[in-house]
Specification:
5-stranded antiparallel beta sheet; about 5% helix; 8 strands; 3-stranded antiparallel beta sheet; mainly beta
């Protein structure tokens, strides 16, 4: 049984049919964050693409990162963006930057009090929300303020 931050009824995230993001989603199931890195120019990139954003090489791979980042931007939505979120606002969304990995950025929910103070540059840690009872099973990457 999993503890869920988000209500039931939201679409289940799955890798694209072409399999491009499979390494990312499989990593989350093991409490790991994997991102792409070009094998030619060594540039980090997110989101996943078939070619490098920097040098246009098709030789990209995946590397595990330590997903401790800082808040680059944030938002506190009050209105539901999906019918399943009706009555679940406000909540916090953060854009997390990883200076140690070429300043790539990932978006996600910030856990905790939705009225908490959020500071640009604040440090965050990953939280892995497992949904093993879902079909198919999946894991979400959420964020929490580092103390």
């Amino acid at each position: 049984m999993s503890t869920s931050y988000l209500p039931a009824g939201l679409p289940i995230p799955v890798p694209e049919v072409d399999g491009l993001s499979t390494q990312y989603w499989e990593g989350l199931k093991k409490n790991e964050v994997w991102v792409q890195r070009c094998k030619d120019c060594r540039t980090w990139q997110w989101g996943p693409e078939w070619m490098c954003h920097a040098c246009n090489s098709f030789d990209t791979g995946w590397e595990k990162i330590e997903a401790h980042g800082r808040i680059y931007s944030w938002e506190r939505p009050w209105h539901p963006v999906h019918p399943a979120l009706k009555g679940h606002g406000p909540y916090l969304i953060v854009l997390v930057e990883f200076p140690q990995y070429g300043n790539i950025r990932m978006i996600g929910n910030l856990l905790g009090d939705p009225h908490q103070t959020v500071e640009i540059g604040g440090k965050v840690s990953p939280v892995f929300e497992h949904h093993e009872d879902a079909t198919p099973p999946f894991t979400l990457l959420q964020w929490t303020i580092e103390t």
